[in-house]
Design a protein that fits this description.
Structural class: mainly alpha
Strand content: 5-15%
Order of helices and strands: HEEHEHEH
Number of strands: 4
Strand order of the largest sheet: 1-2
Number of helices: 4
Family: Belongs to the phosphohexose mutase family.
InterPro entries: A-D-PHexomutase_a/b/a-I, A-D-PHexomutase_a/b/a-I/II/III
Number of domains: 1
Mean pLDDT: 87
CATH superfamily: Alpha-D-Glucose-1,6-Bisphosphate, subunit A, domain 3
Shape: globular
Protein name: Phosphoglucomutase
GO molecular function: phosphoglucomutase activity
Distance between the termini: 29 Å
Pfam families: PGM_PMM_I
Low-confidence stretches: none
Oligomer: single chain
């Protein structure tokens, strides 16, 4: 990974994101299935992307949560589903979207206390 040309320097106003705009993009921008850049990508323990680039939007989160609910139902999984969130700007809107879908599918949910790094929740779930 290349080092940013301004690494170690103070943040400029132009470096900051507009959280309200990003949140609006999460809800309003719709990914196009025929655009590779709009497709879901997963990182260490979650979905990676940007609402501005159509790669982390409500449509993605709703589809992923619905798929999880359907896989659980089809495989007879009745235990709770653990859901966490972190401090990223879109974590709260995505968290709400996930809870709406899981509740509609009558999935019991255990919610991570406070905002924290999602690997803390993912690692014990995997091992």
């Amino acid at each position: 990974m290349a080092i940013h040309s301004r690494a170690g320097q103070h943040t400029r106003q132009s470096d900051l994101i507009n959280v309200a705009q990003l949140t609006a993009q999460y809800y309003s921008l719709k990914p196009q299935a025929n655009q590779n850049a709009h497709r879901v990508k997963f990182g260490t323990s979650g979905h990676r992307g940007s609402a501005k680039r159509h790669s982390f939007n409500e449509a993605h989160i709703l589809a992923i949560a619905q798929a999880i609910a359907e896989v659980r139902a089809n495989n007879g999984v009745t235990g709770p589903c653990y859901v966490g969130k972190d401090t990223h700007a879109l974590s709260e809107p995505a968290f709400i979207s996930v809870l709406e879908v899981l509740a509609a599918n009558k999935v019991n949910v255990i919610i991570q206390e406070n905002n924290g790094y999602t690997q803390r929740l993912a690692f014990p779930s995997l091992f």
